[in-house]
Specification:
about 180 residues; alpha+beta; NADH Oxidase; 8 strands; about 20% strand; binds flavin mononucleotide
């Protein structure tokens, strides 16, 4: 079950207009809060966005990589408090990953939108743009946003032949754990 879920998970950027049930949104956030964090400090925070106008504004956080959020029924902004942990990036990333996998398990599709280290326009950081829209306090950091919705595109699952086993070593770098399955 878990392995078919991670094989089937793809980046889904096209969504049906159908709203996501409240119960499913709560399950997504339950998954986010179940994610582990360094020293259990839980520096991550989340903003669930279902307001169409806000989603449209957030979809403009990047020149290209975020436009699909305009047609998503739901966006989840993943942020963190760096004052709580020096490894907030890792902690927030694991939580975002849990949301992505939970979406798949709930029959939804999701896709990550990178925010940290990305620009909205030449002179404006995507993070600052989002912070202004959502009244996020200055000390907090925005890692990413997740677009979520019922999938309106079909993507094939990952194939075993595509897995880069040549990047997996055993005991010493360069010593393959497994020969690549021939294509
Ligand atoms: C850290 C990270 C950042 C990403 N940023 C974006 C993004 O800003 N916009 C986007 O459309 N997809 C983004 N993606 C999705 C990747 O493009 C996608 O996962 C990759 O092409 C593999 O496709 P798959 O998810 O369907 O397996 C991101 C994925 C990760 C893990």
């Amino acid at each position: 079950m878990f392995f078919s879920l991670i094989k089937n998970r793809r980046s889904i950027r096209k969504y049906k207009p159908q709203e996501i049930e409240r119960e499913k949104i709560e399950r997504l956030m339950q998954a986010a809060l179940l994610a582990p964090s360094s020293k259990g400090r839980n520096p991550r925070e989340f903003i669930v966005v279902d307001d169409k106008e806000l989603l449209l504004k957030l979809s403009q956080a990047r020149p290209h990589g975020s436009s699909f959020l305009a047609n998503a029924p739901l966006g989840i902004v993943v942020l963190a408090d760096p004052a709580k942990s020096d490894v907030w990036i890792e902690d927030a990333s694991i939580a975002a990953t849990f949301i992505w996998l939970a979406a798949e398990a709930l029959g939804l599709g999701a896709c990550w939108i990178q925010v940290r280290e990305r620009k909205q326009r030449e002179s404006i950081e995507a993070e600052e743009y989002i912070k202004n829209i959502l009244s996020i306090p200055p000390g907090k950091r925005v890692l990413a946003m997740m677009g979520v919705g019922y999938p309106d595109e079909i993507k094939s699952p990952k194939q075993e032949e595509d897995l880069e086993y040549e990047k997996v070593f055993c005991n010493q770098y360069g010593n393959p754990l497994k020969e690549r399955v021939s294509r």
